[in-house]
Amino acid sequence: MSLFQGINTSASALTANRLRLDTISSNIANAEVTRANFVDGAWQPYRRKMVELSPQTNGTFDNFLQAAVGTVSGSQGGQGVKVTAIQEDNTPFKRVYDPSHPDADQDGYLLMPNVDPMKEMVDMISASRSYEANVTALNASKAMMLKALEIK
Amino acid sequence: MLDSYHLQVLERSLDAATLRHRTIANNLANIDTPQFKSQQVIFESFLQDELNARAGNGKLEAYRTNQRHLPFGNAGVAVPQVVSNPNNFIQNSGNDVDLEAETTELAKNQIWYSGLTQLTAGHFQKLRSVIEGGGK
């Protein structure tokens, strides 16, 4: 039974949370961008992006071996988390009245990105806390492996 | 002596601690995954049953006249079991990982693991002192 798998599991979560933080940074950075895509002769504002997560369940050799030998009963856990997609938020864009803006339509309305800074801040705190929890798990794996090496 | 029952119990307990650690790491990794169900490892109660049975005051155990007879009661060895708790509080996302409970379990398991490594090291230390004659 390998503790290295615990480290890989934690590492996958660290990567996923780093990507979540990067995506949130991108959303906040582009919160005022009115020219993200050029579609049919008109500029489209930036669309908020979200990371889609799912558990990584494809079994390893170790899992199959242990199930076959019978050293563990019940279905064993997966190998962490993976990012399946970066989805775009399809909520409508904000409409702001600003006739002097070059991207405003005939009625003087301007489409702004559907990014809500408040929502992004909440997501950012959540991602950063998850990152910390997984660092704790990683440090525990390290400490346990070093302890096992003390058996001599 | 080298392959004593004591050492076997330690070895299986270390394996169970490793499995538990991996399970907790997986739960923590999936703390934001929608529809994820956390898992727990049960081992100590099985081990206690086995030790009680060995000490002769366990539950009913069938007498086997042939090695090929199926074990009955606590005749087998304690095997860790991975389970999901259906009574966990499920959040709106369908995920039931409890950060506080998992980190507490992680800390407990880590201490348990280091205790087991010390016991195992102590076992070999005793063997060494016997081999060396204890006179040094």
Automatic annotation (TrEMBL), chain A:
Highest taxon of source: Bacteria
Stored Pfam families: Flg_bb_rod, Flg_bbr_C
Keyword Mitochondrion included in the entry's annotation: no
Domain Flagellar basal-body/hook protein C-terminal, chain residue ranges per copy: 106-150
Domain Flagellar basal body rod protein N-terminal intervals: 7-35
One GO term of the biological process aspect: bacterial-type flagellum-dependent swarming motility
Keyword Flavoprotein: no
Assembly mode: The basal body constitutes a major portion of the flagellar organelle and consists of four rings (L,P,S, and M) mounted on a central rod. The rod consists of about 26 subunits of FlgG in the distal portion, and FlgB, FlgC and FlgF are thought to build up the proximal portion of the rod with about 6 subunits each.
Family: Belongs to the flagella basal body rod proteins family.
Name of the protein in its database record: Flagellar basal-body rod protein FlgC
TrEMBL record, chain B:
Subcellular location(s) per record: Bacterial flagellum basal body
Recorded GO CC terms: bacterial-type flagellum basal body, rod
The keyword Oxidoreductase is assigned to this record: no
Gene Ontology BP terms: bacterial-type flagellum-dependent swarming motility
Highest taxon in the source lineage: Bacteria
Primary residence: other
Keywords carried by this UniProt record: Bacterial flagellum, Cell projection, Cilium, Flagellum
Domain Flagellar basal body rod protein N-terminal per the UniProt entry, residue ranges: 7-37
InterPro entries: Flag_bb_rod_N, FlgB
Pfam families: Flg_bb_rod
Subunit and interaction comment: The basal body constitutes a major portion of the flagellar organelle and consists of a number of rings mounted on a central rod.
Family affiliation: Belongs to the flagella basal body rod proteins family.
Role: Structural component of flagellum, the bacterial motility apparatus. Part of the rod structure of flagellar basal body.
Protein name (record): Flagellar basal body rod protein FlgB
Phylogenetic placement of the source organism: Bacteria, Bacillati, Bacillota, Bacilli, Bacillales
